[in-house]
Predict the 3D structure of the following.
Amino acid sequence: MTYKHILYGVEDGVARIALNDPKTMNGVTEDMGHEMVDAFDRAGREARAVVLTGEGRGFCSGANLSAAQDMLADPLRDFGGQLDRAFNPVIMAIKRMAQPVITAIRGPAAGYGAGLAAAGDVVMMSENAYFFCAFCHVGLVPDGGATYLLSQAVGRVRAMQMMLLGEKIDARTALDWGLVTKVVPDEELDEAAMNLAKGLAQGPRSLGLIKRMAWDALDSSLETALQAERRGQCEAGRTEDFLEGVKSFVEKRKPLFKGI
């Protein structure tokens, strides 16, 4: 696929996927959604970690409502259709891929962008970044998995505050609430995200298992999680990276993992 709405590149085992429509602060269209799904699928074959970010001053301003103007005259219009066709598959691609995904956010993570940002396995924000669940201001409901992801991250009451009141949540508040992993100065965001991703790209194959188990545990009982850990430990214990991990521990040196 030729990418017209995103940028894609791989460096040192890290795939960088960047939304690339700065004039709209990376408002998402169906075409952009399709390209992101393809890029995540490609990264699953070509990289060992992923950074998802946005070009320009914003991470993502949400769905590009200007692109949907032609639907407004139809009384049977279905704005949910684009979620099925292009937006939800992006969130599921992030969840399902074995590689850890870092979302690197500057400026707004608004509307659909709030869910997209929160879907990262590691969430990094610059000091000028903010979450903005603006749906209530335009008469829509949250999407991008926000109702689930935000409630899981900060609890129902704070998620309700974000979604019902439509308030901007700045980076420091997001960090205090446990919504993000790290906040860095704006000029350091790109380098910090890439450095962290490069470290993850040098990690063992078990990182993918950890990611899968952590996502699954969100909807599991303790008993189910324990059994998942038992299966995951069996799988991880049979990897070459585990053998290297034990060998390097005994030899008191840094392990050289290959992701196999």
Observations:
- The CA atoms of residues 212 and 242 lie 18 Å apart.
- Residues 30-46 form the longest helix (17 residues).
